[in-house]
Design goal:
Layout lengths: L28 H22 L7 H16 L5 E6 L15 E2 L6 E10 L1 H5 L6 E8 L10 E7 L14 H12 L7 E5 L5 H9 L3 E5 L3 H7 L3 H4 L3 E7 H14 L2 E7 L3 H4 L12 E4 L5 H5 L5
Parallel strand pairs: 1-3, 6-7, 6-8
Antiparallel strand pairs: 1-2, 3-4, 5-8, 5-9, 9-10
C-alpha cells in the first residue's frame, strides 16, 4: 500500500490519527545516529571489562575494555583522531594518541577515551568503574599531556563564577552554601583520597562541610556534581589527571555545570614538544552554556 505524501504510516500513530513517529531535523541527524553508535561503543567496552570484575587483574580488565572499544570505534562513520587515549604511540599498542579511528569516511572528529576509568575498582569488584568517550569537532579537544590538573567543579543552576580555583576552599564552600541557601555544614565536597589533599580536606572540614573521599575515578567524581539530589555531592575539588579533566569537562558540557581547571606543568617532559605551553598554566574556566573546548581547553593558537 502506498501512502499519500507526508501521511504517517498507521504503525506510527496511536489509533486516533496522531503521529507518534520521531522526527529529527536534518542537521541533527548525524548527531542522533552517532549518539546511538557511541553508546554502543561504551556499552561494549563496559561489558567486556565487567566479565573480569573482581578477578584482581587490572591490566586484563583494561585490555578487554580497550580491545572492545577499539573494535567498535572502527565501525563508526567518522574520520576520528584520538587526542586523549591510552598514552603515547610508543607506550600504548591501541587507542594511542594520534591513532585514527572510524571508517575514514565521514566528518572529522577529535576522540577522547578512557576505556576503563577505575581499573583498580573493577579488579577489586568495587563499584564506580566506568567507560568514557567524548567526541568533538576536529581540532577542538585539548590533547592534554599525562600530567596533573587542578580542578574544581559544581553542577548546574549556579550563577557564573560561583567557585574560583584560586580561592580558598572555605570561600568556595561558603559561596556554594550561600547560593543554595543552606549552612556550609549541609554541603558535601568530593575529593580524591590522596596525601596531596591532606590540607585541602582539613580546610574543607573546618567549615563544617562533609568531605566524601574516593580512591579512584575523578571523572565520575566531577559528574556526580551534576545531580546532587541523587549523589549527595555539591562540589568536586582537588588535583587529578589532566586527560581525565578533559573528559570530565566534556561531560559537564553535555549535562550542565561549571568547572575550572589548570594544568600542572611541573615536569620538563610534560612540555616536551609543546613549547607554547611553557607558561600556559593560568586558570581556564569551563562553563555549561558558554563552554567551548576549542576556546577554553585548547592551548593558545597563533
Amino acid at each position: 500500500m502506498a501512502l499519500p505524501r507526508n501521511e504517517p504510516h498507521p504503525s506510527t500513530t496511536n489509533g486516533h490519527g496522531y503521529d507518534r513517529s520521531i522526527s529529527v531535523a536534518g542537521d541533527l541527524l548525524i548527531e542522533r545516529i552517532l549518539s546511538l553508535e557511541i553508546a554502543r561503543v561504551t556499552e561494549s567496552a563496559a561489558v567486556s571489562a565487567a566479565h573480569l570484575r573482581g578477578l584482581g587483574d587490572e591490566m586484563d580488565a583494561d585490555r578487554a575494555a580497550v580491545d572492545a572499544m577499539r573494535h567498535e570505534l572502527a565501525k563508526l562513520p567518522i574520520k576520528g583522531t584520538v587526542v586523549i587515549g591510552e598514552g603515547e604511540r610508543d607506550a600504548a599498542p591501541m587507542l594511542f594518541i594520534g591513532e585514527e579511528v572510524g571508517t575514514g569516511i565521514g566528518p572529522e572528529f577529535d576522540v577522547a577515551v578512557d576505556p576503563l576509568e577505575g581499573t583498580t575498582l573493577c579488579a577489586k569488584g568495587l563499584p564506580g568503574a566506568i567507560t568514557v568517550i567524548a567526541i568533538a569537532e576536529g581540532g577542538t579537544l585539548l590533547n592534554a599531556p599525562d600530567v596533573y590538573m587542578e580542578k574544581i567543579a559544581v553542577g548546574p543552576g549556579y550563577p557564573k563564577g560561583v567557585v574560583d580555583l584560586d580561592a580558598p576552599v572555605g570561600d568556595n564552600i561558603a559561596a556554594v552554601a550561600r547560593t543554595k541557601g543552606v549552612d556550609p555544614g549541609e554541603i558535601t565536597v568530593l575529593v580524591l583520597d590522596r596525601p596531596r589533599h591532606t590540607e585541602l580536606i582539613a580546610a574543607a572540614r573546618k567549615t563544617g562541610a562533609a568531605v566524601s573521599l574516593i580512591t579512584d575515578g575523578d571523572i565520575a567524581g566531577v559528574i556526580h556534581t551534576a545531580d546532587p539530589d541523587v549523589t549527595g555531592i555539591d562540589m568536586y575539588i582537588g588535583i587529578g589527571g589532566a586527560p581525565e579533566g578533559v573528559l570530565a569537562a566534556a561531560a559537564l558540557r553535555c549535562i550542565g555545570g561549571q568547572m575550572q581547571a589548570r594544568l600542572v606543568l611541573d615536569r620538563p617532559e610534560a612540555r616536551r614538544g609543546r613549547p607554547e605551553w611553557a607558561s600556559w598554566t593560568r586558570v581556564r574556566p569551563i562553563r555549561s552554556k558558554t563552554w567551548s573546548v576549542a576556546t577554553v581547553c585548547s592551548p593558545p593558537r597563533a
